[in-house]
Structure formats: C-alpha cells, structure tokens
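Quick one:
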Amino acid sequence: MILSVSRRTDIPNYYSEWFYNRIKEGFLYVRNPMNAHQISEIKITPDVVDCIVFWTKNPLPMMKRLNEIKEYNYYFQFTLTGYGNDVEVNLPNKKNRNDSGISRAVRKNWQAKSDLEI
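Output:
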C-alpha cells in the first residue's frame, strides 16, 4: 500500500505529532468522504506500507523525528510558491526555505537505510 500523507491538508506541517502517534500505534482511522458514518481502521505498519508519500509546503516539523519512520520507504513532495508570509502565514519565510537542511536530513536517513541493506 502507498500511504499518501496528505493531499487534503498539510499533515507534515500542521499535524506531524498526530502522524508520529499514528505510526507508533500502527493504525489510523479514515472517514469515507461519501458516507460520513463509515469509518475504517487502516493498518499502517511497515509490513503493509510499501511507501509513504508526504505532500507538504513545510516538512520542518518532521525533520528531527525521521528516525521514527526509518523502517518505511518514504519521500517528500514539496510545493513551493512565491507567496510571502502575508498569504502563507504558517510557513517559513520563502527566502530561508532553501537553506533549511531538509535535503540533508532526508539524505542522511536514506544513506543510513542504504548502509543497512548492503
């Protein structure tokens, strides 16, 4: 299963604590958008999840805890816009986003995984 996190809202930026709690518990609940009364429990353990795709404008809230998802394959899809903080108020300043160490943190985790697989 590919776990898409998240196209409806920016979970890495706004709800990373919730996401890490769900990983720790090994499941999450999903409400059917066509039937609000139908709620499914979805198992999200490493044996079920092939890859996690994070959709975000700001992955920084997740960076210090990437070790908690080291058992998973994952990558980040970034959405970068030219808007300033007057429009996108809960994001780092656009001038500082490229110097945030994001790629360094993700690369370090991927390198650690590669070293284990050799």
